[in-house]
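User: These chains co-purify. Model them together.
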Amino acid sequence: MHPPDTLPRAVLLLSGGLDSTTLLAIAARDGFAIHALTFQYGQRHAVEVDAARRVATDARVAEHVVCDIDVRVFGGSALTSDLAVPKDRDLSAVRAGIPVTYVPARNTIFLSYALAWAEVLDARAIYLGVNALDYSGYPDCRPEFIAAFERMANLATKAAVENGRSIAIRAPLIDLSKAEIVRLGISLGVDYALTTSCYDPLPAGIACGRCDACLLRLKGFAEAGRQDPIRYATA
Amino acid sequence: MHPPDTLPRAVLLLSGGLDSTTLLAIAARDGFAIHALTFQYGQRHAVEVDAARRVATDARVAEHVVCDIDVRVFGGSALTSDLAVPKDRDLSAVRAGIPVTYVPARNTIFLSYALAWAEVLDARAIYLGVNALDYSGYPDCRPEFIAAFERMANLATKAAVENGRSIAIRAPLIDLSKAEIVRLGISLGVDYALTTSCYDPLPAGIACGRCDACLLRLKGFAEAGRQDPIRYATA
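Assistant: Joint model of the two components:
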């Protein structure tokens, strides 16, 4: 065992949702000191930022930074504008085409900030919680995008160019179903009561239970044969 | 001639300096409706943002957005922290190694925002004003970085993935010297009196005349046989 200050460092994109909280447990198991990075943008996700803070504290990360994203360049997206979040959709519709909750180039921007911080920290890895259910709809959740970003990143930084120190983009959830993610997280001791996934939570932070994110999460827990510990408005 | 609203669109990264102002003239010559994007970060560059506004207004761009960048993830850089800006250096020192004004992953972050906006606008090109003098020191100013970003960008967006509409990253200054940039800009009618390049301007916005950026700019004008129209504290 290394003491925490001699562990290799990783930057981890932490939303406070089910996926990135599981990701945090994986990165800790992999032996990294974790520098968690959470983005704040638009109004809808203030509840998520609170969840990210709880998760980061609970996991005793080395550091947690909440970074503001100026959304002036983003146009039509339910996460950043006033488009309605779809409710009670058949989940087969979620898989067909790019969802309305798509934010242009979001993972590219998130990974770029992570890359900047990784360079400052001399981190060896960036962890990103994209998974199979996402990449059916979002172009920047696919393995070929992750590989192309990694290649670009290793041409972009001083550490890589002057010292030959490369950075790996790790997306260990990419091929897992939600049920597999839940099972893996529980085996690693994740407390899902700290997390939130809802696109449209009630003021008190209670999940709506009807948006795509809630429906996918509930289906994941059901298929894993587990009870989701968070509260839903529809329960 | 197309009326402006039927021209193809380009996003252009505009700092208000000599290079990006020349770039703007090139993109206009190339026949694009220009959507200019300026970043505000740290304290030093408030003078540059003012210059960018003057340049954008003068060039009658289709739109100009000033976007805030949260620099919490950036550590040691003279552009964002309190490190001293080097003065009166021999310009051969500027070419040796990565400069102290290096900001980690800066162009990656800037291009990522440009990509997001390009997707919203359905733009066909992103213009970036990197040039030969820069890429001796900054890893993210080299042609191989630009090519890798372009490849990644075309895997990242809905437009590319669903509709096969690709985006080009154009860096037309990349092989030019400062003197060549000045000559090209003057031939295209650029008014360099509107621009600023200084890393450490006086409160009134007057260029110091002694930082690397001022020295490179002055040398460029001298080699082009032209008078730099801006005021310098050292003149």
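Chain B touches chain A through 48 residues (CB under 8 Å).
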